[in-house]
Amino acid sequence: MPLVKATLMMELAGYFAAYAPDPMKPGKDIAKAYKNYLMMAMNAGGFPASAVTAAQPTGMGIGGVFAQQLPIGAAIGTQIATQLTTMALSFMSGQQIGPPIAPPTHTPGMIKLFSGPQPAPLAFAKALATELDTWTKSWVVSGLIPGAPPVPFSGPLS
Q1: Per-residue pLDDT band at 38 (split at 50, 70, 90)
Q2: What is the spatial distance between Cα 146 and Cα 154, in angstroms, rounded to a whole number?
Q3: What range defines the domain where residue 58 resides?
Q4: Which of 94, 3, 101, 98 shows the shortest CA–CA distance to 50?
Q5: Total structural domains in the chain?
């Protein structure tokens, strides 16, 4: 199944529809939704996702950022982007030969998202899903299709 931004957006919108008094919950929800999204990916060789690190450590890390109640959106966006990058580097798919090349191009978007007034939950979910979708589809995953000789592949996720 290919990556579908609408699926990520709707899962995030469902999480953000209600206020969460515990700052850890939004972090866990973001990590869970992103993991579910990543597990729909296919690499350039046509092989599906096989593993992503458990959402728990990333969710706790993002929740910890929210718990700090940092006054500067740039710091929030940067720290959340770092947590998501760590999760990204754990992505594995069939016949993949190493972690994806996941450039930090989502950091400016995350800074912008967390630096202004927070939009309504659906708008926030849409903005976050768009940023993560665009970033994820820019990763380069390489691998080898078995055979004699093996056939290399390299390219973005779909």
Answers
A1: very high
A2: 14
A3: 5-155
A4: 94
A5: 1
